Amino acid sequence: MKKTFIINLVCLFIVLSCKDINKFSAGSYPYAETYVIHKSEKEVINTIIKLKEDNLDYKVPKLQWAGKETELLDGRDSHWYYFYFYFKDTNDIVEFWTRAGNRPNETKIGLFSVSKGLDGSAHLVNKDLSDRENTEIKREFEKHIIDKVK
């Protein structure tokens, strides 16, 4: 009995002393910044597609990746519909998904990745960026995407 208590206490101490407690989160995107939109997923997807068509600056230019010219294409993959947007004013590429919410006419949008520049490597939002960088990219994302989808 005493041995179990000590083991539990040590485990609790290890968990609480971890800097990044979120690494124990379940799901494919535990660090994503999520937003809930009170519209159907189909309506949200169509709005985002139209937003990108109406503002060609949001289209990500072709990139060089592993020595080949690559184009980041939006599209559905299982539960998620993925989007890639280029914010020309800050030279950032953001990657986010949409997914049907838990209720009818509810959609979740998850911002999970940002690349600094067209040749920069991807960084996970809420994990790899500083607090200041996270705040800035979320503010830009809300201004360019969320506020226009609501």
Report on this structure.
This is Lipoprotein. It is a single chain. By secondary structure, the chain is an alpha+beta fold. It is built from 3 helices and 8 strands. It has helices at 2-17, 41-54, 131-149; strands at residues 33-37, 63-65, 68-70, 75-77, 80-87, 92-100, 107-116, 122-124. The strands form 2 sheets. Strands 1, 4, 5, 6, 7 and 8 form a 6-stranded antiparallel sheet that branches. It has a two-stranded antiparallel ribbon with strand order 2-3. β5 and β6 form a beta hairpin. The longest helix has 19 residues, at 131-149. The radius of gyration is 19 Å and the shape is globular. It starts with a helix and ends with a helix.
List the topology elements.
Elements: H1 2-17, E1 33-37, H2 41-54, E2 63-65, E3 68-70, E4 75-77, E5 80-87, E6 92-100, E7 107-116, E8 122-124, H3 131-149
Antiparallel strand pairs: 1-7, 2-3, 4-5, 5-6, 6-7, 7-8
Quick take:
The protein has 3 helices and 8 strands; from the N terminus they run αβαβββββββα. The chain has 150 residues and is of the alpha+beta class.
Supply the number of helical segments.
Answer: 3
Distance between the ends: 55 Å
Q: Give Rg in angstroms.
A: 19 Å
- What's the β-strand tally? 8
Q: Give the overall silhouette.
A: globular
Class computed from helices, strands and strand pairing:
alpha+beta
Give the overall average pLDDT.
86
Share of helix, binned: 25-40%
Low-confidence parts: 8-25
What is the N-to-C succession of helices and strands? Answer: HEHEEEEEEEH
- Percentage of residues in DSSP E strands: 25-35%
Protein name: Lipoprotein
Organism: Chryseobacterium paridis
